């Protein structure tokens, strides 16, 4: 079996069906082997950064790694920002790079895509060191299969990107075909004793607590623990919060769900409920980055009030249990509770405030406002739908939406790279289609929709991936372009009227057509009012989606979600305080 | 004077008038100071990779560095592939990155755009190490002005990218305003004695040679030696060749100019004239990369037949003269020859073959062929025009074109990153406009045009920069889209009918309009025949250009320039030979 065939077989075994990337002369022969693997196909993105973002979106929906193929140097570097995003947001990615052959590498030949005179062909592999958890060079037929298996395992253990470098002259080298018969061991080696101790300690703490709370955060999703987390929550019935990055992991229709905790940038009562009124806070799969903690405005809890469930350890008070991993821990905790249920736990001590109703002025306004649209898109989403929110106002706004169970929400909050959402939407929509074809999509027979919400500024960075959606004939995508005439989030932060926050004025109604959609003009609409918005989203084209739809939503340049303003105010206040101490953030 | 003002003043002093980049919350306050510098303005690109390519194109036309501003991490990494291209092609670039403030850096705070837990905010500065020649952190008001000056000097000395990292909280710190009064010393320190020795040795060798030849290559342009090189060639009257990367440096209407030398991938007679018939070959500003040497098919010359004039040394036979720099050396050589002219030198020994005329079948064909179009675009270009050729068939084809003196040709052959050409065209067009406004554009009063030739595949990678052209109201750009239904160059290399060499089918006639051009549809045309092509390029809209024009040129999927086919054949033969020896390229 040729080495390339082995590689693609292994990747298919993980559940991957679509391979992202851009062809180049150093990877063409590698791509030849994709079609030979049943159920695996090549996508072909518009550029490499988009391919990386698409692989990221694909992974978030399917749970398996997203895979992208690039060419040494030019392609590899173009993709690196997307890989870095996957790294910091714990998304599984396998980045396969086709490189020069070994003879050219050893001769340090000045082949195109190299750097300067006497070039080190492996210099790019050093460049990506900080954005991956493992890599291998398939430059030895004897070790190559083992190396592929090793880096794939690392990809799962850390839920982060890995790189596989394939010199052109090793694509066809033979490896034993029988090796693919044994699946790769993807599970971490749990310290069973530590796990048991951790479970006992956690149960003991919960049992003795009078007001416990749980915060469910992003890593629960990334490490594939969404289902077991919800099972466990049903068992525990403890008041549950999520975070901006964790949103949509917890079924939001459950009585134990109380909304988004984001430090001081939360709805009234939320921070108090956790920081003041709870005597035990279990923080599961946490990512304590700035915009996931209200600009680091969470109040620190004393050790004895907190339990941390991280990707690879559990900490109960001062005791840290190493070798205890997220899914395994939650699974075994759930099993323990099934055999020995807890005594009935206290419900939340007080009824929390709900999201404040739209202010009267807003309720009366006919035009579309920030305080209205995110909640409306939230109620628009049906089980099986995926919502992608771009960095910017959408990201801050969607914390106010309530999603039906079975709605997935994707956004990139910690890395926060604008332009992420369009290719991620493409990858998510491809994944959604695959899940649907396997009979697992949607609920009640409704086909899931992938709904992208992107600002007019962010759209411009990666717009060409809409062409790939058209090329693939995707029929499950709604693209909402928030047209607020430039980078509104930046206007809110600094320079509201500065020229640098302006952008080129595009004609969004022609975009689909220009990018190849024969029905593009018919399927592109523009709305200025809530009424117009309602009309469009309730039309059969949207409710019974079978072609790409683009909706341009006109909004005020300076209208921002209250959460964004609250976080900016908080940081400005802190900076003013620090400045008076001679030290600015 | 605030540090940021100092930085922008210094940059303006280099001749820079336009700053590329994308705004982000960590660079907004830095951007505030641009408008305060007379003659400097912010552009605002559609994304960061495009900004880097645009800065590259701008630098190639203006001679000063291209400048781009990004935000830490997300922007910085998105741009890195464009910076790497500038590095390997010796283009001056100043990449300014707005970063987190020092307090957040020292606390290793999890601020958006960072990597993981306990993040090192300076990790990205390590990532770009291999693609720059110097960098500095402006985190100390006392040293910052000196650091700015130092890295700018390094940018010029190596003609390669440098990075300047600006923590948010150092934007406004005061520095002495008087520092800008002394210009930065940008010239290398020449070893005068070595230079004199080198000049004597070179003159001695030329005088004793019976059949000398000169090859003028890319670094002559990159180190700003184009004018002095042409002066020197007029003095020397030695048969002169150029390379694919050096094309358009030498005035092609001169009797001493004999065309493009590209190893075995040259017109008949060229390789022989240099490799067999010359007894002295002076290789000036060379870049010996694969596609600049016919796939490394140049015949190696014995030491005693060759003189190398590199960026920072001159080698005559076995003697290497260090501390001798390109411009200084050529200038002093020219001065020496002015005071002591050489005896009349022999002209080339034989009349070289000229490019073969189009084959009869091609001459009779009405549709547009590869063997026809490149020469035709060559004759179409007027003094002051800039031609940008994308990696792919254009790059191989343009070696057959003959350019009028004063036509500049830009392409990225060594790095060869597809997608380069669209933003580079934007940057070049901005630079051309600035030169025109200074009264130096075009010749005979004709305003120069920037003519982009890009394939339908490459166009998709970076298409959004056309929107920036529209936003800026550029009226000097002609975009020719070669529509040959996918990646033709890759079809020629491998997998002619493979799906991965296909692309999304766009409606190019709607592109300009979608990207905001109100006259977009009128200014977008499609041609299938030579006659149609002739008609369009001779129309007043093209000869008297004052708005962006887009021309879709339909060509055969499998038609390729003869040079591309010749290089592929050559490499395939070599690989077959190596394979029989058990080692493939």
UniProtKB/TrEMBL annotation, chains A, B:
* UniProt key word Magnesium: yes
One Pfam family here: TPP_enzyme_C
Checking SUPFAM superfamilies in the record gives: DHS-like NAD/FAD-binding domain, Thiamin diphosphate-binding fold (THDP-binding)
The UniProt keyword set, sorted, is:
Decarboxylase, Lyase, Magnesium, Metal-binding, Thiamine pyrophosphate
Boundaries of every Thiamine pyrophosphate enzyme TPP-binding domain copy: 403-499
Domain Thiamine pyrophosphate enzyme N-terminal TPP-binding residues, every copy: 3-106
Domain Thiamine pyrophosphate enzyme central span(s) in chain numbering: 199-328
Cofactor or coenzyme needed: thiamine diphosphate
Q: Name the family the entry cites.
A: Belongs to the TPP enzyme family.
Q: What is this protein called?
A: Pyruvate decarboxylase
Organism, scientific name? Aspergillus keveii
